[in-house]
Amino acid sequence: MSLLQSLEKIDRSIFTLINQDAHAAFLDPVMSLLRNPDTWIPLYVFMAFWSVIRLKKITWLFVLCTLAMFALSDSVTAFVFKPYFERLRPCAEPSLAGLVRVLDGCGGKYSFPSNHAANHFALATFWYSTIKKMTGKKWYWLWVWAFFICYAQVYVGKHYPGDILAGTVFGICLGILFYRLFCWVLEFIQRKQRQESPAKSVDGLNTKVN
Fold first, then answer.
1. Could you give the maximum distance between any two Cα atoms of the chain, in Å?
2. How sure is the predictor about 204, in pLDDT bands with cuts at 50, 70 and 90?
């Protein structure tokens, strides 16, 4: 058995454990709710208000990076990676027909990597890093939030754990990239502001770039 076949077997075994063996009737609606985008609208509204209140004049930069990163993560995962790898979703895999618990429909044909994992871990990485930089606070709950959304993807039968892992790695890398972009733009604005008006400071721009 090749290494790839061994990894595939392990991936399916973990999927079966989560999707079938570890299921519970009371968890079904909870997991469906976790992966529903509408569930998290209040969180996104909160983040928008937080940025306005805390970041003030650089709110536009925080929001722009967030939206651009999310769009890039979602589009690259859906239109580049999935068509390239062509890995069927568990719920669309003929060899697993009748064995997969499908709670929210099967969705698209391909599953690798997971859009949900890439998108939410990109957000968690960028938000955590930016908030830590600007306020010194460590919002660890962002990682927990992303994890449970991803776990729900496996639970409802849409993704293998390997899809989640790949999406997570891509999302974290993208989050770090946009965090560095945020720092670079912030440093540029700080430098320009110091040159134009050394005696003044702009709200939210007095943080040293790491």
1. 70
2. very low
CB 19 within 8 A of CB 157: yes
Name the 3-class secondary structure at 98.
coil
How many structural domains is the chain composed of? Answer: 1
99 is in which domain, residue-wise? 40-196
- Which residues are 179's β-sheet partners? none
Would you say residue 96 has pLDDT above 80?
Answer: yes
Nearest-angstrom CA–CA distance, 175 and 177: 5
User: Residues near 148 by Cβ (< 8 Å), separated by ≥ 6?
Assistant: 34
Q: Is 79 among the domain residues?
A: yes
Q: Is residue 16 part of a domain?
A: no
The band of 198, judged by pLDDT with boundaries at 50, 70 and 90, is low
Place of tokens 């960028």: 126
- Which residues are paired to 110 by β-bridges? 88
Is 66 among the domain residues?
A: yes
Q: What is the pLDDT of residues 173-185, one digit of tens each?
A: 999 999 999 999 9
Let me know if residue 192 belongs to a domain. Answer: yes
**Reported pTM:** 0.90
Handedness of CA 149, 155, 158, 163 (dihedral sign): positive
d(CA 67, CA 73): 10
